[in-house]
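Model it.
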Amino acid sequence: MTALGPLSVRLPESRTTRRGAWARLAFFPAWGLVLPAAALSAIGLLLVWSATRDEPGSTLPPRQALSVAIGFVLMWAVSRIGLRVLRAYVPVLYLLGLAGLVAVLTPLGRTINGSHAWIVLGDGLQFQPSEFAKAATILAVATALGEPRDGERRPGAGAVLLALGLAALPVGLIALQPDYGTALVFLVLTIGMIVVAGAPKRWFAAFAAAGAAGLLLVWRLDLIRPYQLQRLMVLADPDADPMGMGYNATQARIAIGSGGLLGKGLFHGEQTAGHFVPEQHTDFIFTVAGEELGFLGAACVILLMLALLWRGMWIAAKSPSPFGRAVAGGVVCWLAFQTFVNVGMTMGLLPVAGLPLPFVSYGGSATISSLAAVGLLAAVNRRTRTPA
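Modeled.
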């Protein structure tokens, strides 16, 4: 509106102005992230409902729905808080994450499904601190890698060593539970962040050498537990122990294969209804998708996850901030690795690692933390020069 004497003239709004106003009014700043996450969460609710429908008095579906609701609220809050505020509170968040991991090792901790990784606060109220420590560790490592010294365009040796030290503390605490699958997630996301930050290539040769030396040390010191060795043997020969250690993988392949192209229909899976696959509502939720939704439905789950990961990689590539780029890279590595391992172990291509399928598997801690991670991506997206 411009004034010309007693007259006033309304100037037409530019397209850029209208798009900026719409972006400010939008509930979420990055629909390319929110829509895949919402679709995966909705599919997960249906699959959890199907997997537990025959259990009398089951409260798992409404609990999962509550976790999804809390996760979306936290996603929105994290995306609106922004990176600057989050960065200011990184030390507090990191120490809280470590405190939760330490608390698990005290009498507050409980063993569930063979892992002493849970804190039980009351009847039905439990959470897994390692899930929330993932985001805190990503922020801490990103802080170390996202502050190059004057004249440096990529992190130096000091920054890389600091990042590795910050990641080593939660990895060590998680290994004591023991939960080696989750510990491996921390290692992968840390190395991925170092790669995204542009560290010198010599570090990757050092990581490879350290990994090989670690595997040799574990083997020579006989640190592999018998059940872990049996899982590796079953992977090499799935039919070696079909009623023992190979039971999960065998039943999972049967359930997925029986779905065919289009599946048997939601709530009509015979393998799912018979509960032939243990933990089919958590770690093996992909078997329910394969049987009831078929190849096309299972492929849809994977494509939705790929769409979210692609958007996350785009955000990392476009971020003008080294800190934001490292955060986005860490979240993408976290979600991508867990998806790869979960689907791989369900199909018998990888050993059983006990990692949930992000957004889809039942689990309040995993669901809330994964959705909060999407909020981190949205916060980074708000700082990019290119509009979402």
